[in-house]
């Protein structure tokens, strides 16, 4: 990984200026911080480079099957051809009641089979080509071998009937069913995996399409963001997203960087402070000099990290692909041995029958469905618990997890300011009275912290005290008159005296003062989600080490970490989190990453398993393997259970799906013929059908324990 520009690190930005005393209570509008106010419909994504994105990490055999066409479309178009073949060609050389056999039906079947082979078989023999090019024949090669042998031999059988008059059994029925089942299995798998979202496109949507450039005469020119240059001065109105990285040269405001850096509090920004493109301006107007554009910008560097992460191959081995690879080599070797041996023992026709039977028996009907059917069932179960599984490989990897890296803001915590504690510091007042005074003095402000105090009082059913006048105290807080008394709500720093009280770690503390005497205090902060504590206990039970990595400041991070009893890393930029995950993977640890913000996206993509909180950013959702739609970290426990049970079912189905092949192939080749035991094509077809049914039933038995 290349060394990134230092501007990427939010550690260079001053996040320490959050102080209740400096808040403009009268102007701040919380709605301006709403990411949902952006008009994404007008954004230009045409310049995004998606060429490096690997959207199919979980595809069977490790190949991007979508390169060879849509399995759904190919299956649906192939289905009529396959059904027609089933109706006009006998199974096991026996005409069944549902079949219609007429003169030259076999010729018609041969024509239909040729069309089906060329169209329906294309993704498989193209996939086999990819496998051979990479010197790793597997599932696609095995399927191609099966359909090719059954098709070619069946065409030969039809030709032999009309040229020599000899009746030779064909495999058109087996050919058609194999091809249709394989197409269906891959369609099920692709549907279960889902199409990976475009994380880079979602990142681009954080930036507005146009910027308001300030010219030398102070007039404003609207210019596309893509045309901005270093040194341009741009005006950012209240509630707008910042178009580019830069330094404030005029104005002050509070900027919400939570989606980008993980900093939970809106950050006070003044002249000479840095702002990041994609962050949301509060109520003030900012004039920003552009310092970075193009691939040096914060968002562009995050895009690069995501691209690098998604292009890295997973360490997990695809078991089904390995089994198919073994079967391929075994089938080919055994078939060649059978051909030579029976030519010596008997004659060429006998040798061909044993050889073809061996290769047809190797067709992976059940093996091809073993994984997709379990994934389909697992996906449905997960969805019922608020878990969206985008990459089935993540299920197996979770059972091997060593460490889980957890974001703080919006993941372990709510990401919203709430009243953590109201403390009474005077015998003259009760907690209810202090709460009423706090709500009353903050009632006229739209600031999110003020609103959290008002909401706290309403939730407690406490009526706000009516203030006659409220004024801002410069550099300290606010003051007002109520019932003939003068009150101030100021920061602990502005109060300047020591208080005998316990302050929650990382909390913002404001003191309610009457006549220079502290009568109460309110602690506000980012509240832990109810299920976070239980999640940590569950992780420890499964032997998974929890580690919190947050873009938030040291004090806030330490407070949450101490409550949960876990290790932590604070002030983490996207690159820091990326390097943290990368270093653990380099130590051969299997890493799960859980997060919700843009700053989590690269590490979500790089981790062996990325779990995104559903209420987070689209970028994080697109980079992850698993999405928690209910944004509840407690659902991770259900996911771990799902992963363990799904992996167990996959292994069971692989045994059922491939086990009969390892037994049947040698017998089909005539190994037991000297003692009178042979396995003809008809019995082989029965074995294949039985194995497929067992695999399907076993998949449907997958269950989750009730909550």
Characterization of this structure:
With 707 residues, the protein is of the alpha+beta class. Helices cover 45% and strands 16% of the residues. It has 23 helices and 22 strands. Helix 21 links the parallel strand 21 and strand 22.
Helix-strand layout with pairing:
Blueprint lengths: L70 H18 L16 H16 L1 H12 L5 H25 L8 H22 L5 H6 L5 E5 L5 E5 L8 E4 L8 E6 L2 E4 L1 H4 L5 E3 L4 E2 L4 E2 L4 E7 L5 H14 L7 H27 L2 H14 L3 H20 L2 E3 L3 H6 L4 E4 L1 H5 E12 L6 H12 L5 H13 L8 E5 L3 E6 L2 E7 H4 L12 E7 L2 E12 L3 H10 L3 E5 L4 H11 L2 E3 L4 H13 L4 E5 L5 H6 L2 E5 L4 H6 L2 E3 L6 H34 L12 H20 L7
Parallel strand pairs: 11-18, 11-20, 18-19, 20-21, 21-22
Antiparallel strand pairs: 1-2, 1-3, 3-9, 4-7, 4-9, 5-6, 5-8, 10-22, 12-17, 13-14, 14-15, 15-16, 16-17
Helix pairs in contact: 1-2, 1-5, 2-4, 2-5, 3-4, 4-5, 4-9, 4-10, 5-11, 9-10, 9-22, 10-22, 11-22, 11-23, 14-15, 22-23
In this structure, how is the largest beta sheet organized? 7 strands, mixed
Helix content: 40-55%
Rounded to the nearest angstrom, the distance between the terminal CA atoms is 43 Å
Strand order of the largest sheet: 10-22-21-20-11-18-19
Kindly name the structural category: alpha+beta
Count of helical segments?
A: 23
Query: What is the percentage of strand-forming residues?
Result: 15-25%
Low-confidence spans: 1-67, 192-197, 312-317
Give the number of DSSP strands.
22
What form results from the Cα inertia axes?
elongated
Mean pLDDT over the residues = 77
């Amino acid at each position: 990984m290349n060394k990134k520009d230092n501007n990427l690190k939010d550690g260079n930005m001053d996040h320490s200026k959050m102080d209740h005393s400096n808040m403009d209570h009268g102007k701040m509008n919380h709605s301006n911080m709403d990411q949902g106010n952006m008009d994404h419909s007008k954004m230009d994504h045409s310049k995004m480079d998606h060429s490096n994105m690997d959207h199919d990490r979980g595809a069977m055999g490790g190949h991007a099957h979508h390169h060879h066409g849509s399995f759904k479309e190919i299956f649906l178009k192939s289905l009529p051809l396959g059904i027609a073949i089933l109706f006009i060609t006998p199974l096991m050389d026996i005409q069944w009641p549902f079949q219609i056999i007429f003169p030259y039906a076999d010729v018609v079947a041969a024509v239909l089979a040729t069309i089906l082979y060329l169209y329906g078989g294309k993704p498989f023999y193209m996939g086999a080509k990819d496998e051979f090019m990479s010197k790793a024949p597997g599932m696609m090669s095995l399927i191609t071998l099966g359909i090719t042998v059954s098709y070619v031999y069946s065409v030969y059988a039809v030709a032999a009937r009309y040229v020599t008059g000899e009746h030779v059994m064909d495999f058109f029925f087996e050919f058609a069913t194999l091809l249709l089942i394989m197409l269906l299995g891959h369609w099920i798998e692709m549907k279960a995996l889902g199409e990976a979202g475009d994380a880079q496109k979602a990142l681009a949507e954080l930036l507005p399409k146009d910027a308001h450039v300030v010219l030398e005469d102070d007039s404003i020119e609207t210019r596309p963001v893509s045309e901005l240059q270093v040194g341009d001065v741009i005006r950012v109105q209240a509630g707008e997203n910042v178009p580019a990285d830069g330094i404030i040269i005029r104005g002050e405001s509070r900027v919400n960087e939570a989606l980008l850096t993980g900093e939970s509090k809106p950050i006070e920004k003044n002249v000479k402070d840095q702002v990041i493109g994609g962050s949301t301006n509060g109520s003030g107007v900012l004039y920003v000099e552009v310092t970075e554009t193009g691939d040096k910008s914060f968002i562009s560097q995050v895009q690069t990290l995501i691209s690098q992460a998604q292009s890295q191959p997973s360490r997990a081995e695809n078991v089904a692909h390995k089994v198919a690879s073994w079967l391929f080599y075994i089938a080919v070797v055994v078939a060649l041995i059978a051909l030579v041996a029976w030519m010596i023992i008997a004659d060429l026709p006998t040798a061909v029958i044993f050889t073809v039977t061996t290769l047809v028996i190797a067709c992976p009907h059940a093996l091809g469905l073993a994984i997709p059917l379990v994934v389909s069932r697992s996906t449905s179960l997960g969805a019922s618990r608020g878990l969206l599984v985008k990459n089935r490989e993540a299920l197996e990897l979770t059972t091997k997890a060593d460490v889980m890296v957890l974001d703080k803001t919006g993941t372990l915590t709510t990401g919203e300011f709430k009243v953590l504690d109201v403390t009474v510091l005077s015998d003259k007042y009760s907690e209810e009275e202090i709460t009423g005074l706090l709500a009353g003095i903050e009632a006229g402000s739209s600031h999110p912290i003020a609103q959290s105090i008002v909401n706290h009082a309403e939730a407690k059913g406490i009526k706000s005290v009516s203030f006659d006048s409220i004024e801002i105290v410069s550099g300290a807080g606010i003051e007002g008159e109520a019932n003939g008394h003068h009150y101030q709500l100021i920061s602990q720093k502005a109060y300047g005296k020591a208080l005998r009280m316990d302050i929650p770690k990382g909390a913002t503390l404001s003191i309610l003062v009457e006549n220079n005497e502290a009568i109460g205090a309110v602690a506000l902060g980012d509240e832990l989600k109810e299920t976070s504590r239980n999640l940590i206990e569950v992780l420890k039970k499964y032997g998974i080490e929890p580690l919190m990595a947050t873009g938030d400041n040291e004090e806030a991070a330490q407070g949450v970490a101490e409550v949960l009893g876990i290790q932590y890393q604070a002030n983490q930029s996207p690159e820091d989190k990326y390097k943290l995950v990368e270093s653990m993977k380099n130590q051969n640890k299997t890493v799960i990453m859980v997060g919700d913000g843009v700053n989590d996206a690269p590490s979500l993509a790089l981790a062996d398993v990325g779990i995104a909180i559903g209420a987070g950013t689209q970028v994080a959702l697109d980079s992850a393997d698993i999405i928690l739609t209910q944004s509840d970290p407690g659902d991770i426990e259900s996911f771990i259970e799902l992963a363990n049970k799904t992996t167990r079912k996959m292994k069971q189905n692989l045994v059922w799906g491939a086990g009969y092949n390892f037994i049947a192939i040698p017998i089909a080749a005539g190994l037991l013929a000297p003692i009178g035991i042979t396995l003809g094509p008809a019995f082989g077809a029965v074995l294949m059908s039985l194995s497929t049914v067992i695999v399907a039933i076993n998949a449907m038995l997958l269950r989750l324990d009730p909550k």
